[in-house]
Amino acid sequence: MEFRKDLFADERDDDLNEVGRPTQRQDAQGHVTGRSRFFDDYALPGMLHMKFARSPHHHARIRSLDTREAAQMPGVVRILTSEDVPKKVHTLLILLDLGPDDEPPLAFDKVRYRGEPVAAVIAESEAVATAAAAKVRVEYEPLPAVFDVEEALAPGAPLVNEYHGRNWYDYNGYDFRKIRFGDVERGFREADHVVEERYQMSPIEHAPTETGGCIAAPDTAGRYVCYTNTQALFFSLETAARILDLPSNRLHFVGGTVGGGFGGKVDSVHEPLALLGAMLTQRPVRSAYSRAEEMQVSSPRGAERFYVKDGVMDDGRIVARYARIHFDAGAYSRLSPYGAVKAAAHMPGPYYIPNVWVDARCVYTNRTPSSAMRGFGVTGADFALEVQMDKLARLVGMDPMEFRIFNAYRDGDMKAHRRVTKNAALIECVQAAARIADWPLSERFQAMSSTRDGGGERGVIPPAPAPGPGNGASGRRVPPAGAEAAATTTRPPAPADAPTVASPARSPLAGRGRMSSLLGTRRR
User: Fold this and answer.
1) What is the pTM of this model?
2) DSSP letters of 117-182?
3) What kind and span of H or E run contains 76?
4) Rounded Cα gap, residues 225 and 338, in angstroms
5) For the segment 493-512, what is each residue's pLDDT rounded down to a tens digit?
6) Spacing of C-alpha 259 from chain mean position
């Protein structure tokens, strides 16, 4: 491993020296010797088991719910329905001071995704609880369902979630989280090339070795303890306290050992109902996904869809970017509105682009609710914009590494979020990666630095477009169309160490044209 002490020496604290040392994890010995305690290792006397009756429909109205046959099975102790839950509707976002409440712990009027729980059976054994859950009789009225984000946004689409009144999340009066920087219309008009592409992420299951679950039990002095594998211990505690309408000091959560999470164990779906079962039976209650449930109903990564449109000059400068993002939340918010915000914030990437327009919508469909997974929002945005960067580099005939160096932020540059760039390091990272990979860079690009040639004209906030057709004072401007009219603005300044050649080598795609590959079609 190579350590470059010469880079950013005045910004680094040399007391940090753990990288490259074989420092042992604190939990390593417990894991390899089998002494680490997971939630399922707490074998409590008299423990009961909770299993769920789940909807077979993606979208349906609940006409009736009959638990009598299930309740009469030997070994069944209690059956919970929405009538037993103190707070019938909640949202994880409330702990971030956001709303509205939009998800019932147990469905009562409608089911909005396949596998949504409508009743919880508590029994002496897991087998009895599973068999009794199958005996819960529910009369459903199937409703039209929608599974695609753009179909959900179309006029006349089935309404997924009545608590929102629309199929998208409302961001303080806007149907999207937005970024507006510079004049994107003019940026496209002055560009030598405009490229528009569509990128699609899949709803990926985390597939942890240990499925999600917990054990809740009565404690002393009217308190309750919960042994859980949540990744967000205090977040789950506060969520449970709110749903159960309890002071949080009556709950004691024990966790910290998670058999794989990756973001999939932050939604607090087990703890509130297991605790409610413990409160009503005064016995320990275990709730845990089977492997099939983990795959079917635990929250996956959101199925994000990105439309990215870039204007680029023959010399390689990106002069405009327009991005539309549809973040598929599934049937309920969970943490997806936050993921859409992250996606919007990340779409400019680590590159200086003087004109940026981003609209990120969090859309509701009748799919399993999505939530956190390994940098959700950012991961999909990175995939889209970096594939786009490769395509732009090929279009103008530039090496993809040199293209990234050329467009990278430098200290002093103004970001599209209206923050001045500090401690930029992309240029140096790409240079180091190229050297290690034996990727040839020209001397000009090897000599570039993140600490030079930023700021100045690149460090100011550009003026917004003047009011006019499509740019009204209301702030709800019409998205860029990439009009072909001649530009009247001055092109953004290039770095002082930009290539002095008139133009890079031209690729077969080069030319003052427009290219689109939306949905697999191309237009030149």
Assistant:
1) 0.86
2) EEEEEEESSHHHHHHHHTT-EEEEEE-----SHHHHHSTTPPP--TTTTSSB--BTTBSSEEEEES
3) strand 76-80
4) 30
5) 444 444 333 333 333 233 33
6) 22
